[in-house]
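Pilot study result, target chain (127 residues):
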Amino acid sequence: MYSNIFKPFSRILPYVLFGNIMDGISDIDRFQRWLQSEMAIASKIEDPTERERRLLQLDISISEVVRYRDIVHSLGGTVASPFAERDSPVRENSNSDVKPSKSVGECHSCGSKMTGDLEFCPVCGEF
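Predicted structure:
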């Protein structure tokens, strides 16, 4: 029933938290602690419906974090970084295809310069 609520979350979690350990605490542990602190904040929401909705979201999120951590540990911590590094940019910047526009006259309505590639005035919009 709740699996569709956090589908986007479960797709980004491996990319954000793949088990890097910084200062002895992994990113996933820090994320879980943050979710737990959010539960304390959510418990103070006045609207009971909104409070229960938020607490349920956080509870499910924490469960997913624990499940993900178990998967990473079962793989022996060998989760590769999802980011690929390239030697060169994917697309080269090239100005050779850009051609300067040529002025072909003036607009009969406002007097600004018209270009040949447009059928209307870029200032006032007249044809």
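One observation from the pilot: The beta strands are 21-22, 25-26, 103-106, 113-115. A full batch analysis is planned for the follow-on phase.
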